[in-house]
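One record is given unchanged without comment:
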Amino acid sequence: MVVVVILAVLAATIIPQFMGATSDAKISAAKSHIAELESALERFYINMDRYPTSDEGLRVLSEPPGGDDKKWRGPYIKQLRNDPWGTPYQYKRPGVHHPTSFDLWSRGADQAEGGDGVNADIGNW
């Protein structure tokens, strides 16, 4: 019985520390993915002399756009993946934060615009 109580006390003190680590890891992964996508978008720009339109979105990083495929030197990424919370990354050209280029962001844990803490949007701004 004493051993069970000791294990319960240890678990109660250790588990909350790991809960925060999971959120931090997801935020770090989203920042890393955004940096990777931003780099791929810059390579797209160098080859195509333009950024993808908002309608084309990020899919032109893995498959050629219609019409301009002679300049396209992709794929620029192996696979377009969702953010760590399972939703697609958001892309807007021209951007609100970067009017001469693009905005690229994840909506965060709450999967909604805005928010604070772990629910905050994570973007290239």
Summary: Residues 24-123 form a domain with the Glycoprotein, Type 4 Pilin fold (CATH 3.30.700.10). The first strand starts at residue 90 and ends at 92. Strands lie at 90-92, 103-106, 122-123.
